[in-house]
Amino acid sequence: MFTGRPDDVDVSLTGIRYLGLAGTVLLVIGGRLGGALPTADLDATPASVARGPHGLVILACWLVGTGLQAYAWWSGRDRTPSVRWVLVTAALWTLPFLLAPPMGSRDVYSYVCQGEMFRHGIDPYHHGVNALPCTWIDTVSMNWRDTVTPYGPLFILIAAAAVAVGASLAGAIFMLRLAALAGIVAVAVALPPLARRCGIPPQRALWLALAGPLAGAHLLAAPHNDAVMLGLAVVALALIVRSGARTSWLLPAGALLGLAISVKLTALVIVPFAILAAGPLRRAAVTIGGGAAAALVTLTVASGLGWGWIPATGVGTSLIQFTSPPTAVGMTLTYLGKTVHPGFDAVPVVRALAVVLLAATLVHLWWRAYRAADRTRAALHGAALALAATVLLAPVLHPWYLLWPLTLLAATTRRTTAIMAATVVCAFSVLPDGGGLARFVKFPGAPIATVLLAVLLVMAIRRRTGSAQPTPEPATSS
């Protein structure tokens, strides 16, 4: 039991550190036995994985390992003694994934093939990896072989460099992991200034952002390009916080945001809040907006890829999974509607309404931050909430997307229970080979998710209404 005495603190922290490390070891073992291996069966289901060689061991390692990491992460959220302790612990939990097989997703094989396409002069915004065909085409999921890439030109250049330097599939994957690690290190360096500006202990912010159950297995082992986007965006915001409204700081901050956008268009939602956080609006809009636009245009033109990457960002919407709240609602309405008309499909309409709601939410968040007494702090928190809204209302939601808002919420608020709980749930939703319940259990998954959303919405409204009620004054005797 934690009583607050120094000896108890040491024992508790030691237990947290090595409990999470044990989780990492189990996840790596599960990945080696049944991760997203190049030779894995692309048509495997959770049931077939369980029945296959080492199936129960794979599932046990993955579930227990995720559980240990999640428990240790949750337990340590308000106990971390220092930034140094957090960084050492996060490194112990994360670095073993550098040498693990890909796990939790097969996206990295698409990354490698897209990089090879670029090196052969084929535009990945107009052709799928089948067009080369890619040397490692057999490793890419069948659903994505004829699909164009939704990523920006900077990431295509990174993928091409990884293929060139790595000189093999394993080498290219390792180079992409180094790029992801660079993004993680950038977050580690730049998040403390944001946390201090918002009154959050830096060690707590770093713990939430870097030690969660999605960080090692998905950002680094997978590896996903979200790490690069987050690293660039967080460094840009840190420059703005420390700039004192100096143009010499704001221009490079804008350029970094432009580079983040050129990895994933998602980073665009941060820009209006970054401008608001920087000081006088007109000058900030010119410097940050101009820096972002200049970096984006220069990179796009210099790469020779053109602007085809912007419309290509919507290709992922072909994926229909109930992990996305709008998609879950649309799927549920579709199941109901098909009892009347076989061709009924509510998913496109609900998704379109969600985009409209997202736009309105972003405007509301920006205006609320604009009216705040401390604009900089409100704008940083507004950027975190904007990313949360983007994740919740987007047509597709993968587990690692939660790291977008989690990273900034960790540095801007102590009210992180909901995002942490969602992170833990999502960490359990994917298996080491990249499969999961969302892919194979559309029904009753979508109706269950819709009911859960409705319950959470009612609870949130009641809580908000209750907090808005005036506190009755105590009765006084006459």
Automatic annotation (TrEMBL):
It comes from Actinoplanes lobatus. This is DUF2029 domain-containing protein. Its main location: membrane. Belongs to the MptA/B family. It comes from the Bacteria. Keywords: Glycosyltransferase, Membrane, Transferase, Transmembrane, Transmembrane helix. The chain crosses the membrane at residues 15-35, 56-76, 82-100, 151-169, 175-193, 205-221, 227-245, 257-278, 284-307, 349-367, 379-401, 443-461. It is a multi-pass membrane protein. It is found in: Membrane. InterPro entries: MptA/B-like.
